[in-house]
Structures are given as structure tokens and as C-alpha cells.
Amino acid sequence: MEPALGLGREAVVLGLETLQLARIHEQAFAALGSLNGTPRSTKQAERFFTEALTPIVETHHVARQSKIELNRLTEKLDERTAELAVSNRQLRRGIARRKSVETALKKSGAHYSKLLKESLQLQAGLRQLTHRVLMTLEDERAKISHELQDEVAQTLLGLNARLLSLKKAARDNTHHLKNEIATTQRLVVKSARSAREFRSA
């Protein structure tokens, strides 16, 4: 039966199917049958044909197994494709969320940067305003100081004039002397009050 198996293997290599091999066998048997048409030769021809079909049948079996395996792999691939599609959707949503967060952070950063800039400008303005207020207060103090000095100087000049008047009055009239002393005392009290007001200011 080795020649039959060899023929079957060649048929597989050539890509022949069962029906095609059956026709070739029938034609060959018909040609040989005219020479030897005994029942024994018919039986041998059947066995030869059955043996020759074995590689094709095996190929069909392997093909069926391969098809089953291919179908199983296709199902697996479909499952993986569906899982991958879900993962891709989740990934796209994640990317969209991340971009949204990044945009919000950029806006927030720009907003805080603007607030910081405005705060620094306000601080600079406040420093300038404080400096102007202090300068104004200093000018006001200097002005008050000059006014007080002028007032004290005028009071002292008045006291000096009164003292000269008292000196002269002491020679002439005692009653007039008491009035001049009282007036002089009032000038001293006024001068002391002005000095105290300046110190408290």
C-alpha cells in the first residue's frame, strides 16, 4: 500500500480533492480493467483507492482542527479587540479629563499670577501713599514746630516787655505793679500750655 500512500501525498501536494482523485482512480481502473477485470483486482483497486485517500482525509482532519483552532483564536481576538476598545475609550476619557484639568490649572495659574501682580502693584502704591503721608505729617510737624517757636518767641518777647514795664512801674505805682504781674503770669501759663500741646502732638 506504500505506492497508494505516495500517490495520496502527491495529490495533497498538488492540491487535489477527494472527488478529483476518485475520477483519476476511476479512469486508471477502467484502463486497467480491460486487461484484468477479476473481482480480486477490483478489491485491490478499492483498497488502493482507500489508502490513497488517507493523506487527503488527514489533511481534511488537520484543516478542520485548524479551522476550529482558528475560530477559537478569532473569538479570543474579538474579545481582546472589545476589551481594547473599552480601554481605548477609557484612555480617551482620561486624556480628555487630564486636558481639562491642565486647562483649568493654566487658567487658575494665570488668574493667580494676575492677582499676585495686582497685589504687588497695590503694595507698591500703598508704600508710596504711606511715604507721602509720612512726608505730609513731617511737613505738618515742622510747620507746627515753627509756629510754636514763633509763638513762644513772641510770648517771651512779651514777657520781656512786661518785665521792663514792671521794673518801671515798681518805681511809680504798686497797684499797677500787681496788674502787670498777673498779666505776665497769664503769658507764662499760655506759653507752658502751648509747649505741652506741642509735646502731646
Sheet with most strands = none
pLDDT < 50 runs, ≥5 residues: none
Order of helices and strands: HHHH
Q: What count of structural domains?
A: 2
For the termini, the CA-CA separation is 135 Å
The best one-word shape is rod-shaped
Rounded radius of gyration (Å): 65 Å
Our count of helices gives: 4
Describe the secondary structure blueprint for this structure.
Elements: H1 2-14, H2 18-33, H3 39-172, H4 174-200
Helix pairs in contact: 1-3, 2-3, 3-4
Q: How does this model look, in words?
A:
This protein has helices at 2-14, 18-33, 39-172, 174-200. It is mainly α and 201 residues long. The longest helix has 134 residues, at 39-172. The protein is rod-shaped.
Put the structure in a nutshell.
This protein has 201 residues and is mainly α. The protein folds into two domains: 2-90; 140-200. The chain has helices spanning 2-14, 18-33, 39-172, 174-200.
Descriptors for this entry?
mainly alpha, single chain, 201 residues, 2 domains
